[in-house]
Amino acid sequence: MQKIGVFVCHCGTNIAGTVDVKAVAEALGKEPGVVFSAEYPYMCSEAGQNLIKNAIKDYGLTGIVVCSCSPRMHEATFRKTAAAAGLNSYMVEIANIREQCSWIHKDIKVATEKAIVLGRTAIAKVALNTPLTASSSPVVKRALVIGGGIAGIQTALDIADAGYEVDIVEKEPTIGGKMAQIDKTFPTLDCAACILTPKMVDCAQNEKIHIYSYSEVESVKGFVGNFTVSIKKKARYVDETKCTGCGLCTEKCPMKKTPNLFNLGLDNRSAIYIPFAQAIPKVATIDADYCNMLKNGKCGVCSKVCAAGAIDYKQKDQIIEEKYGAIVVATGFNPIKLDGYDEFAYNESPDVVTSLELERLMNAAGPNGGTLLRPSDKTHPKTIVFVQCVGSRDTTDCGKPYCSKICCMYTAKHAMLIRDKYPDTEVYVFYIDVRTPGKNFDEFYRRAVEEYGVHYIKGMVGKVMPQPDGKLLVRAADLIMNEQVMINADMVVLAAAIEPDKTARPLATMLTASMDTNDFFTEAHPKLRPVESPTAGIFLSGVCQGPKDIPETVAQASAAAAKVIGLLAKDKLLSNPCVAHSDENLCNGCSSCERVCPYGAISYVDKEFRMPDRTTKIRRVASVNAAVCQGCGACTVACPSGAMDLSGFSNKQIMAEVDAICR
Amino acid sequence: MTFSYYPGCTLKTKAKELDGYARRSAEALGITLDELADWQCCGGVYTTAKDEIATKLSSVRALMSAKKEGNALVTLCSACHNVIKQTKHELDTNDDMNLRASNYMGCNAREAADTEVIHYLEMLRDVVGFDKIKEKVVNPLTGRKIAAYYGCLLLRPGKTMQFDNPENPKIIEDFIRAIGATPVIYPMRNECCGGYITVKDAEAAKKNSTAVHESAAGFGADCIITACPLCRYNLIKAESPIPVIYFTELLAEALGVK
Q1: What is the dihedral of CA A546, A551, A555, A557, to 10 degrees?
Q2: Which candidate, B183, B172, B244, B184, places its Cα nearest to that of B209?
Q3: From CA B96, how far away is CA B152, in angstroms rounded?
Q4: What is the pLDDT of residue A182?
Q5: Which of B168, B187, B191 sits opposite A466 (nearest CB)?
Q6: How far is Cα B39 from Cα B57, in angstroms, rounded to an integer?
């Protein structure tokens, strides 16, 4: 028979305001097996914990029930308390009488009755608890960073700096991400490439960092401390070890009409290409969709001109398997497609561009060598209209309900840069709200308005109408003047909402990491654990977790790295002992459990059994890999013969809880 | 193939040609338009005011009689189409509207929503097919530059009308290509002509309509076509420099039945 102690917490007035805690302690004290029952204002306080410790020692308690807040809050606290008093941590049960009782009820009588039932249930369970011991598993001292933008780069550099091996997997031929495409950065207006490319070079030169460019994560197995990841190195038809990045092939390639994706299709490049001058690795890649040799077997010019003999038309995708202790997701973002916004004539007129396209149009390495020209006729634009919140804060089907956060600042930046370089160009910005919190951000925006004379108009653009003379007639509402305004513009720039990269969703499935409805990765706690995924060993860096600018991304990237370093610094990890196990005598080998297991923790083995007639028989039975099992319990429900059971949440314990509720 | 047909009052008075050419063309395309017996005025767009049930009853009756005939209901006038389709949508989705309509009519009004409502243009696209029309054209309008004017009623509200993309429609342009002419794309094609505002504030309506024909003419159109008698009225009143005619007239001309 267990000797059970019950500890009822007031949580100030959080619980005691609605629940008669004295009555609860008294009622639960009469339950079978309970030898001690008490209430206290703050059970989680040091004094409260001492109360528990002393009771364990004085009464020789073998199990305790704490009636308090959600186990998510303080289960770990009270387990430690028990352990400190020499009681096995898994002999502790929490009855949640705050979130599930006092906070949701108003009637004291009802709430008190319910609190007693919840306490009784926990007592019924703890009576059947058995001490459990966590096993430990080793930590692979290597991290994987998925995505090679500024987020992934910063995370990798910080992890490497702490002395751990780190691999970056980047789906594009070069690392650098969106920041490499940006011209200048707010609020300092320094050149993005000048501050990004040294970091890219650092990555390439760091002995601890290995870059898998033009590669994608194919599958992820394992668990925190011990992931096995398959990485697909896509065929780039160029031997990376031989290519010197001289660029001769890109000059001689005759397929010059290939859209230049780095410049967002605003100009063309050759079918064999190096995305930009400072690409890392600086290795050519063949675009198989445009290469005549790969498509029709005719040409071979690049192979002929390559002095290094690096071209390999027969190169195949390659799968690499590697083990990691931690995985950082840094998959970034893309501007949304504007197909749902025909009122802005984006598809009709080349002079209607997105803000990212404007970055390329203004960039010295862009299609116009840094001179801002209208895409349609290469003339100097005299009037430019910016439209903010295109698809952001938009609850229609084609938009996103959230604020993309970066658009107000980069639009102010664009407006200021244009006014600075071309003072004869009038700039109008249509906004719903200007949101510029951040260090030196609002000052930056004020400068655009006050010093650079940018016309900020509160209101939304209703329609952009291409005119027969090539101009764009912009019709909008001025909400402050309460009138319709018409502006004859040369260019219109749309601040398109940003959304998580399309690769994020399938990746989340592979990692069993949760996402919100907008496909942003969910953090373990919105305030207190912002860079960890709820899935152990998975960390979040950059926009994959939510919209953010470069300074915030870098801060989060370093935070994620710190968490990874903290994990990799451990030699062993204690695993959760609440895992499934199968009673081999009951198991009939049906595979139901194997099919429902989301972690691939169950396999089948042939085992020899001694039969009652003293013969032996080989039977196929389920076997659980305790290191991989996460204790979700899906198998225990699926098992038709009742062979599968979960330690700490056994079928017997659950039934005892149900009985206690129904009593 | 036979459809129930709801012409609407304007097509019996000011817009007789919209109706006449439509009937002749349908015949040439092997479609029978069976005019509903005893149809009543749809009430114009005023019936879309949410709180008035009586004005919606004529649409419910039209839907009900088409259901009794067992046919889909073809409309032609943009306003009638808008009103009947929106009424059908309300019957489908609004229990209160259903109850009140049922009480008035002494039957289960929701049944009326079973009737499929298609505009004549949708019939050309989805039932006949623009490819088929192309084959039947005896007098292709080659070289004619035609501006499609949608107005607002055919397209909006987009989710209810399900007619075409309200910001960038293409059904009338595809129709123009089918009869051998060249469509002129201009930005004002889905803007409002001023509608009934013309009764209260003729200048306001004129401003809207002028913007439409200036835009169409500016992009080189030699003619504007529409499916809406009110749009045509406003455009002509705003002294459009290019002719404004019904799309059915061009269809009849191309099919050789004008």
Answers
A1: 60
A2: B244
A3: 27
A4: 96
A5: B187
A6: 11
CATH of A580-647, one of 3.10.350.10, 3.40.50.300, 3.30.360.10, 3.30.70.3270: 3.30.70.3270
> pLDDT higher for B45 or B124?
B124
Q: Helices (H) and strands (E) in chain A — how many of each? A: 17, 34
CATH class of B138-255: alpha beta
Q: Architecture of A144-229+317-332+513-568 per CATH? A: 3-Layer(bba) Sandwich (3.50)
The residues spanned by each domain of chain A are: 4-126, 144-229+317-332+513-568, 248-305, 334-499, 580-647
Please, which residues bridge with residue A499 across strands?
A334
ipTM for this model: 0.88
From chain B, pick out residues whose CB is under 8 angstroms from the CB of A484: none
> Do A334-499 and A4-126 fall under one CATH topology?
no
- Enter the tokens of residue A496: 């398109």
A524: phi then psi, degrees, rounded to nearest 5: -65, -35
Burial (Cβ within 10 Å: 0-12, 13-18, ≥19) of residue A476: buried
Mean pLDDT of A233-237: 97
Q: Which of A111-115, A503-507, A575-579 has the lowest mean pLDDT?
A: A575-579
**How many Å apart are CA B48 and CA B51, to the nearest integer?**
9
Mean pLDDT of A490-504: 98
CA atoms within a 13 Å half-sphere pointing along the CA-CB vector of A311: 24
Please indicate whether, in this complex, the C-beta atoms of B218 and A468 are within 8 angstroms of each other. Answer: yes
Please give the pLDDT value at position A601. 86
So where are chain B's domains? 2-121, 138-255
pLDDT score, position A301: 96
Q: How far is B52 from chain A (nearest CA, A)?
A: 28
pLDDT of residue A355: 98
Q: With contact defined as beta carbons under 8 Å apart, do A528 and A411 qualify?
A: no
Cβ atoms of residues A74 and A44 within 8 Å: yes
Domain A4-126 has CATH 3.40.50: yes
How far is residue A396's CA from residue A407's CA, in Å, rounded to a whole number? Answer: 19
CA of A396: which chain B residue's CA is closest?
B159
Looking at residue A337, its pLDDT comes to 95
Q: Which CATH superfamily is domain A334-499 in?
A: FAD/NAD(P)-binding domain (3.50.50.60)
- Max CA distance (Å), chain A: 101
Is it the case that residue A512 has pLDDT exceeding 90? no
Please state, in angstroms and rounded to a whole number, the distance separating the CA atoms of residues A84 and A104.
33
**A258-290: pLDDT as tens digits:** 999 999 999 999 999 999 999 999 999 999 999
CATH of domain B2-121: 1.20.1050.140
Q: Of all helices (H) and strands (E), which one includes residue A77?
A: helix A71-84
Please tell me if residue B104 touches chain A, with a CB cutoff of 8 Å.
Answer: no
